[in-house]
Amino acid sequence: MERRRFVSPCVEPARLEVLEPRALLAGVTIITHGQDDDGELNAWPSAMAEAIAARLDGDAVLGTVRITPGESDALKAEAELLSGDPSRSRSGEFIVVLDWAAVATGLVFAKANTRQVADAAIGRFFNTDWIGSSAWPLASLPIHLIGHSRGGSLMSELSERFGRHGVWVDQLTLLDPHPRDFITGDGPVEAYSNTMYAESYYQTDDSLFVNGQPLLDHGYDRKLSVVSGGYVDKGTEYAIHANAHLWYFGTINQASTISDGEATLTDAARETWYTPSEERGSNAGFRYSRLGGGSRWSADMIGGTEPVVAGLVSSLGGLSTHSSVDRVECLAELITLSVGSAGSCRVLQGSILPFQVAYCDADSPAILELWLDIDRNPLNGNEMRSVHQQALDATQGIEPAETGDRGIHPALRWATTTCLQGSRMRTETLGSCTMTTPLISPPPIPRWSSQTGGGSRARRMEWAIPSCQG
Prior knowledge:
Layout: E1 16-18, E2 28-32, H1 44-55, E3 61-69, E4 75-83, E5 94-99, H2 114-121, E6 143-148, H3 150-164, E7 169-175, H4 181-184, E8 195-202, E9 220-223, H5 231-234, H6 239-252, E10 258-259, E11 264-265, H7 267-273, E12 333-339, E13 352-360, E14 366-373, E15 384-392, E16 398-399, E17 414-421, E18 424-429, E19 433-435, E20 445-453, E21 456-464
Helix pairs in contact: 1-6, 2-3
């Protein structure tokens, strides 16, 4: 396609500098535990949530969804914010602990299985009454699910429930997943077709009753060797099983010696728990999350046996095949494939800054809107909505999104695309760049052109940065 650039006599450049290589904010991370025989939430899920918030310099909203017994055989789901203000957060990042300890008890006669817990919890992520000023539910944002032991089964079930409502899950992280399916009726460990990236970090050195499960051809599998240190030093029952979530915690908090509130990962243990390519945990686990910035298209075998791209669903150019979901309703999904050119977001006036974005819907048309924002939070009310709008056709697969040209106010620095279907919405933050010198009118103009990349059809968004006048 021919690219036309505005030619200017002015020489003063507008520069954009990269903040993170691929770390895209404005999303929700949901963390949950497994079997909990004393009925009280252990310390590690909250410690993990706080460690993720610390990676964002504390600019995150922390909350909890708590599952308790209700009337008769029903379960009750209550949600509350613990810290942070959605209307003031500039990152737009939510971190939620799913606490089902009150019903995760019992070796034989369990109070609930993971299917029942997922059914009870899913509604809170489509409800806004506990988020405060936000006009949209957390299901509108990219979703990362993290679950340990029976909690791995719960996160698989929760991802399937999102899929029933047409919502894609950005990432499913299973930490030594171990459903008690024969005893309690827990759901299977599964990656569903609405999940973009799936991974299992599992071990087989503990008791037969608590060994984890791989995803095989349905995700990235990393077999752990965590037979010493951590919970083993503490003398915890099923300590090697518990070390799986401490292993992942060590990829979030990368200090030499750390504690998750229950056990300690020492500097010496880092040498044996992680492979040389995993660089003591800094190039493993959380590194390949939406917030970590690592490339999920990487062919590197950092864990020793499988490339990172093994967890990426095949429709996005990965190697993973996922199980189908029976949808009861559908909502379009937006996928950011890349930002910038060759990893750079430094652009001179009159040059091009490309974005690659794709969308996927199942059965009904949607509206694609381009928003501009002064920060990365699309839900706090300070964005300029609908600077461009385009109708999208329904599609079963990942398809390009056609748009046109529209002027944008130069003070707004962050681009967000939004898919709207009636009162439902999905958002994806595009840009991780900000201006160091302000643009002089006329403002930037977004253009879209066809591009194929990452093994799937996508659309390249080209920001033409105009020069000044006069």
